[in-house]
């Protein structure tokens, strides 16, 4: 006989949504009421806006770390709300990370290990929950990684995935578009779709992803005509650390240009939301799906993401703006994760989140000053097939970490390697405490190793499959042009 949890998991999505919205009936079916009525945050939230900044390092955002990289619009937004300073992404790749945002689950439970896999239909999604509650739902993509074919678009009435930069052209590794086109798409949609009482908008910007190619105006802010830095190197968040080749330095500076260009478009998005009378009546969440390695130790010369769970990739930004800018200027070190987005939105709106989630609601009125007991997990998504052999979960042998308090334990099973860092004393992860081998550090590592193993043993991923149709579509497009 299946366990109650498994029985609930077997319910159809329609039944799940029906249970999730009928608060009075939830107790009988084991779906706990996450939020009992709306919180009094000044004006009632009529809208929800989720903004995702792809491949965005936290140390390139001014409200998190002062540097030569300019992000005035994001900084101003953060000053008008609640900024979380201890936010960990569950996965260092786009689709798996966003699937955690939309499901409230870790990848080993929603079932998507990395880009290209299809999210199982039995995962209730945030857009489905809000759509069933009467919200008009619309999504706007910056890249193909979140294309509707991967199951992530369920619940959206409007899902804008019109791309103008195509796979294989100018170094693009997937179909995509610039931030300006994304903001324009939001503005055009809101102009045509007026009159909705409640809206859920998901806006995805992709620009800091490789290839780093900012518009000329933004490139010139960081790179001089000779190719050297156009600012004091010591004021840059990355260049002072380690040695970089000329090519790496150029990439690092262009990455900064992409960040500032995206920031300008985020500012324009806020203007659009203000003009459409949405901003001040909305719960607005701004986050990054993951960061990026830029040739800095301990990852060596990597200029990519998905290979590690070190801080440059795994630590993300996370800010909430409440209606009427209540709690403006609040900073918390409460540990948070993308898995908390779905339950937080549900609690804020007085809706019920499904029980089969891993996240917990963030209550802005009851922020723990320093919740050192919470365990947060993250995982890499590379290398691919050759190490995907653990029957418990596809990514179990790749780099995985558990964070608790200031300590971070990393286990890379396919290399039989482990690391321990005290992030309060070593935020750049330069000193693996297990090399010194003190009894205290060995004991901490053993405890966290056991926590990570127990977490992995509890994995129950829903089935998935890999969809490689973009590659075939690209081949067909090239054939039609006479190239193949």
- What is the helix content? 25-40%
- CATH names the topology of the largest domain as Alkaline Phosphatase, subunit A
Give the C-level CATH assignment of the largest domain: Alpha Beta
CATH architecture of the largest domain: 3-Layer(aba) Sandwich
| Percentage of residues in DSSP E strands | 5-15%
Straight-line distance between termini: 55 Å
Determine the number of helices (DSSP H or I, runs of at least 4 residues): 15
Q: Name the structural class.
A: alpha/beta
Order of helices and strands: HHHEHEHHHEEHEHHEHEEEHEEEEHHH
Unreliable runs, pLDDT <50, ≥5 residues?
1-43
Tell me about this structure.
By secondary structure, the chain is of the alpha/beta class. It has two domains: 44-349, Alkaline Phosphatase, subunit A (3-Layer(aba) Sandwich), CATH 3.40.720.10; 376-457, Arylsulfatase, C-terminal domain. Helix content is 30%, strand content 14%. It is built from 15 helices and 13 strands. The chain has helices spanning 4-9, 13-21, 26-29, 72-79, 94-103, 107-110, 126-132, 179-192, 216-219, 246-275, 311-314, 341-349, 433-436, 439-457, 469-480, and strands at 47-53, 82-88, 136-140, 158-160, 199-205, 282-288, 315-321, 330-332, 336-337, 376-379, 399-404, 407-412, 417-422. The strands form two sheets. Strands 1, 2, 3, 4, 5, 6, 7, 8 and 9 form a nine-stranded mixed β-sheet that branches. A four-stranded antiparallel β-sheet has the order 10-11-12-13. A hairpin with a 4-residue loop joins strand 12 and strand 13 (417-422). Helix 8 packs parallel to helix 10 (246-275). The longest helix has 30 residues, at 246-275. The chain is globular and about 65 Å long. The termini are far apart.
């Amino acid at each position: 006989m299946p366990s109650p949890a498994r029985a609930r998991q077997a319910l159809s999505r329609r039944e799940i949504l029906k249970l999730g919205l009928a608060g009075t009936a939830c107790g009988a079916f084991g779906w706990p009421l996450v939020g009992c009525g709306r919180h009094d945050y000044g004006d009632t939230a009529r809208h929800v806006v989720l903004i995702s900044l792809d491949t965005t390092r936290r140390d390139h955002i001014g409200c998190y770390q002062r540097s030569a990289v300019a992000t005035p619009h994001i900084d101003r937004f953060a000053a008008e709300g609640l900024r979380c300073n201890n936010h960990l992404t569950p996965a260092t790749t786009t689709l798996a990370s966003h699937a955690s945002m939309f499901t409230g689950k870790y990848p080993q439970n929603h079932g998507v290990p990395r880009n290209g896999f299809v999210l199982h239909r039995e995962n209730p999604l945030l857009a489905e929950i809000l759509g069933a509650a009467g919200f008009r739902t619309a999504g706007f993509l910056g890249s193909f990684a979140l294309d509707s074919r991967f199951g992530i678009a369920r619940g959206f009435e409007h899902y804008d995935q019109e791309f103008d930069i195509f796979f294989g052209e100018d170094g693009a590794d997937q179909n995509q578009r610039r931030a300006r086109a994304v903001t324009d798409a939001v503005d055009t949609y809101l102009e045509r779709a007026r009159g909705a009482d409640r809206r859920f908008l998901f806006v995805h910007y992709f620009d800091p992803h490789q290839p780093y190619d900012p518009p000329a105006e933004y490139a010139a802010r960081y790179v001089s005509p000779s190719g050297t830095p156009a600012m004091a190197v010591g004021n840059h968040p990355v260049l002072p650390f380690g040695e970089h080749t000329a090519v790496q330095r150029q990439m690092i500076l262009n990455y900064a240009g992409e960040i500032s260009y995206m920031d300008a478009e985020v500012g324009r998005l806020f203007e659009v939301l203000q003009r459409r009378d949405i901003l001040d009546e909305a719960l607005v969440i701004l986050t990054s799906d993951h960061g990026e390695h830029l040739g800095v130790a301990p990852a060596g010369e990597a200029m990519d993401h998905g290979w590690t769970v070190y801080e440059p990739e795994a630590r993300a930004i996370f800010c909430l703006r409440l209606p009427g800018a209540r709690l403006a200027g609040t900073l918390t070190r409460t540990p948070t994760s993308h898995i908390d987005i779905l339950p937080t939105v549900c609690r804020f709106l007085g809706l019920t989140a499904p029980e089969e989630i891993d996240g917990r609601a963030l209550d802005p009125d009851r922020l723990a000053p320093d919740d050192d007991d919470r365990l947060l997990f993250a995982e890499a998504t590379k290398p691919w097939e050759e190490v995907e052999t653990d029957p418990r979960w596809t990514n179990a042998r790749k780099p995985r970490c558990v964070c608790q308090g200031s300590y971070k334990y990393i286990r890379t099973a396919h290399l039989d390697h482990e690391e321990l860092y005290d992030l309060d004393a070593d935020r750049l992860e330069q000193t693996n405490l297990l090399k010194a081998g003190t009894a205290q550090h060995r004991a901490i590592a053993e405890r966290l190793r056991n926590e990570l193993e127990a977490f992995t043993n509890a994995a129950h991923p829903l089935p998935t499959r890999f969809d490689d149709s973009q590659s075939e579509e690209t081949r067909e497009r090239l054939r039609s042009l006479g190239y193949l």
